[in-house]
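User: I'm putting together a small comparison set for a docking exercise, and I want a reference complex before I start. The sequence is below, and the ligand is glutamic acid. Could you produce the 3D structure with the ligand included, as structure tokens?
Assistant: Of course. I'll restate your input first, then give the structure tokens for the complex.
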Amino acid sequence: MTPKSEIISGPVRVRMAPSPTGPLHIGTARTALFNWLFARQYGGTFILRLEDTDRERSTLESELDIMSGLKWLGLDWDEGPERGNYGPYRQTERKEIYDRYLNRLLQTGRAYYCYCTREEMEAERAAMESQGLSYHYPGRCRDLQAPPPGKTRQLIRLRVPAGRVEFNDLIRDKVSVDSGELDDFAIARSNGEPLYNFAVAVDDIEMKITHVIRGEDHLPNTPKQILVYQALGVDLPRFGHLPLILDTDRSKLSKRSGKTNFQDYIDQGYLPDAIFNFLALLGWHPKGDEEILSRAEIVAMFDLSRVQKSGAIFNLEKLSWLNAQYIKQLSDADLAQALRPFLTRAGYTISSEEYLVQVAAVSRDRLRTLSDIAAHAGFFFQLADYAPSLLPWKESPREETLRVLRAVREAIRALDPAAALEPAVINSTLAELVNQEGKGQVFWPLRVALSGLRASPDPISIIGVLGQTETLRRLSLAIEKLGNNVVS
Ligand code: GLU
């Protein structure tokens, strides 16, 4: 673990470098967040760079998905090419820069053209593998004085010196690799089209990145990128590899788990603050035990030296719990605003903002995600049909339930229509009946009559939201259902 005091030695510049070959992945969002936190904590710069050199797999749709997801999470980037609105950078727009660096490497002899064809190398690979050996490019074109007759340039390779590549990872401490394991790897195609590790290193150099913070799956790339830095004679940034994200069974969180697509969390109604808080704790934890932390607290407390080496377990239960806590903290008006699209999507018509705010207030405690609202509170907008057999409390006979519902209806009808339906008013109206019949006998059928459900916010607050007229209508409907049906 690198002590915090040794992590920084000047202005911080970090970057997020997703490949736009699919929708925003939850792990990419976590990496982006850690970079952003680090930048914000030190007043540094956070850059978004789209690594779109794989033209076949990169799509505009993925770019938009990634950018809108990061924005939704509140991760703003600070810089970009002259296109207004801060970027992002795109590798496909930086060919001249890669050419410049490539020429430098070719001129200094740190890179060379390789003439070996794919077929030759495939045959060599097959031969070596049949002897149980792993394939290494034998460096045939390394010291050629002239192109072999009849052959054309295939690739540009880095001349990798013998020795060890070593670096002090901010999270994983000392990493050391024998460069013999890395071959003279290819850095570009013969037409100058840059290959992955070369483009990343050049961009990080050009963008003056001070800290490369990315997922542990990139650890094998880092020695190659360091060799590019060394070949160019430039200083290295610091590297920090974030722990893998694991599923609850400790396997790597896979697409198949259905938990990796960031947009799904937006669609299910997780709040940006909850996701922010949750992702921050995926591999990092503050000194104390507190788990609900505001953005400002996380920015202030975040500490790369407290990021763990071992895999970070992705616990959906914890996310739901956190989300429920954040839902509790919203004002009624903000919650209503957040719930609106979920109700509309579920097909409910919202008569007024005021009504929605009341629904939000009484439903709040039952919500773990915003999309829960449809199941928990849809009845406020439209009472679904329900079985009459749901109305009686326990084994209570139908006649008794009918009698109680009629009495409740009378009590509600007797209220002054101009008076506010405060819980205290309704409670005292029903107090005598509850005393005589018992709580269950009154509140169970009342709940079902009002909501059509077994579980709902308490019936008294439902009456407050529905109002006198609608409450009476629903009570009459229940009475009618019971009157017309034999309860089984
Ligand atoms: N483009 C790489 C990816 O999407 C990230 C490269 C990096 O962070 O260095 O996985």
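The chain has three domains: 4-246, 255-334, 383-481. Residues 468-484 form the longest helix (17 residues).
User: Thanks, that's exactly what I needed.
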